[in-house]
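mind reviewing these tokens:
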Amino acid sequence: MLDLLLTLTQTAHLLAMNLAMAGPLYCIWLCRRATRHNDTVADELGHRLAQRSWQALLAGIVLGLVIAGILHIPGEEWFEELLQLPHGRIFWGGMELLFSLVLMLLYAALWKRMARRPWVLHLLAFLAATNLIYHFPTLFVIFAKLRNAGALAEPVSRETFRGLLLDAEVVSRSVHYILAAIAVTGAVVMGMAARRIEGEGDEAEQASAGQIVAGAARVALAITVIQLPVGVWVLLQLPIAEREEVMGQDLWAGGLLLSGVLAAVLLLHNLAAVSFGETERGKIRASIAWMLVTVLLMTGMLVRLREPGPLRESAEEELGHALARCVCVRAGAAGSDQAGIYERDDQEGHG
């Protein structure tokens, strides 16, 4: 029951944060379309998407706190573990959240007033999106990696945290989340524009809505195709025990992964149809539905893998290897003499 609750809550949290991260980028596209072609449909959709983006960020923050509350049970001291990260990262992470929220609120409020200076709107949207994209996927992937490895029993040094920024597992999962944000937001734009295809308005407005739907579908399609090799990359970078669980040792985890891949294939089929002009509501709804199913199944797989057990031993060993590689890189950069010092210290530690 706890896994089901976590899966549903975490799926909602991820969807909200996806929209918050990528929504402003789609707003730039809609704003440019509205300005260049005097497109009232793009203008209306862009303004609505700007509002939905800051609302999604608020919802994502609230849902994140709910997830933390669910995890804060005996044996799962989530808050205490979070505080083991460098305190500067936590403090400035909170400040960056507030900064992005303020930018999004300004962006939505100034949409009409700054119509003659679209570059101001573009700058606000770009800063809001990239601020979230740069900071938060990496921060929480590192936290999850350290937590799964049982490495949060004591404070994490700044050097350790910085070393993990270039860890292959951290980079692959961060890229995966960023691409997912772009694809999910494309589905949101499709759903918003679909209401105008058969709704009120003249033929020109309906045609414009259809073009926006097809354009968002093409972006979502391209990103979903890219996600396939990125997903393989993520799978290959998992700790050995987790990878073995997904590949068959755990029937639930393996079944969720296989179901998620099949859902992604069906998603690709529907997105391709919409991209080539089949903008009737049935195809659009099917695309959105399969997008939601894919995210839900993949999130369920990750929740399944977070259960304690032998996974933690494997993850801790993998983390040790990752940190050792980071030490070697820093030692090499410092020069051969310094590298020798690191090597001797490493040997003494293993001895």
